[in-house]
Amino acid sequence: MFDRLSRFCVLAVFATFASVAQAHSHLQAAEPAVDAVVQASPPALKLTFSMKLVAKFSGVKLLDSKGNEVPLGAAPTDPANNKILIVPVPAPLAAGEYTVDWHVVAVDTHRMKGTYKFTIKP
Ligand SMILES: [Cu+2]
Question: If you write DSSP's letter for every residue of 2-14 in order, what string do you get?
């Protein structure tokens, strides 16, 4: 009897944590992709999230391999799908490794942030 009850309690706790963890917006895809090696400088960075975003409180910073910030345009959401951030890259990027630091506020009002890299190798 006790064993079953404690097993049930453990399962209930796990289920609760799992649903809370899933309740946030997560990066699902990126262009250039996470850890990708691409030949050409991308015209824009495209980040796809699991939840709709509040564009006003979401943004992206791009750092080159020396840690210098690369100027980017504003980061609006895609008018057709506001789970996607599209960030124009105004000037062609030189060869090298880049770090994308992103932060988003989703419609659940939670703020999430993350980072990933891609490399340009012509
Ligand atoms: Cu959340």
Answer: HHHHHHHHHHHHH
